[in-house]
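Q: Sequence in, structure out?
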Amino acid sequence: MVEPMSREERDAGNRKVKLGFLLLVTVSPPLITLLGDPTAVQLAVATGGGFLLGLLLVWYLSRLASEFTDGSRRPR
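A: Exactly. Output:
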């Protein structure tokens, strides 16, 4: 029988998912920018913008997910 995940395992898994999502969102704008033959500055701006957007999305999704976990359960 499979035992439930410990809090440490769950937190480590959540960090990996957040990091993967951040990496995906950060890398997407520069890759799209490469289609238009960008300058180095344009590529850097696209990377920075993607990183900031990724941080914002990870923060928002973390807050949204916390509404469904960690003691937010109401008795029926």
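The helical segments are 7-33, 40-66.
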